[in-house]
């Protein structure tokens, strides 16, 4: 007998967004499945992305009641009304900026489509999202604003893992999550994780974490286990993530998430 869940929390990149190189980014089938589920129970976006126009338009399209953005640092309802905000302190943001720049790392701030580096030249990234981003120098980075998340990259997988440990020792008030198959590192306030964000929404819905299911593929998704959520990993997730998951399902490509949920919920939709 299939296990029944009262709500779903879904990651976007590498999970729901199965067409990353296409302008629309997500298949019609994934959208249809999400719409049908939201007719009878909540299916909520839980992502490292900000509550950008794209994310909010997607939430409206699938009728998701809430969006957990920036790994729980920013939580909004479908109308983009702010429900929860957890910032990186101004002083810490400046210290972290200096820390990353001293190591020659690339970074983005708050999910803005700008990559900061030593120089605007020689930016070579094969990730689809990076191709669209504006490139600027460190000196152009504005941190005189509310900061919820840094995303940094430019090292190999082992070095990113070591960087995560170094940051959490030097900055105990911050939290790190490896993403992009281990090649990037998200850095947020310590109170910002998908598990904490999901738990906040559960309190609004009067649900227990154990009654829900989180689906994703990255280090920021596995954090939900700390808050007693069920976690299923996509087959494209790194091996260390799959080992910690309660189950491993389809690859995200070709409507993999939609096909899994279609079967689990007995929707009988045709792709």
Automatic annotation (TrEMBL):
The keyword Transferase does not apply. One of its GO terms (cellular component) is cytosol. Transmembrane segments: none annotated. It comes from the Bacteria. The keyword Glycoprotein does not apply. Keywords: Hydrolase. Signal peptide: none annotated. It holds the Pfam family Hydrolase_3. InterPro entries: HAD-like_sf (IPR036412), HAD-SF_hydro_IIB (IPR006379), HAD_sf (IPR023214). One of its GO terms (molecular function) is phosphatase activity. PANTHER family: 5-AMINO-6-(5-PHOSPHO-D-RIBITYLAMINO)URACIL PHOSPHATASE YCSE, PHOSPHOSERINE PHOSPHATASE. This is Hydrolase (HAD superfamily). It comes from Mycoplasmopsis gallinarum.
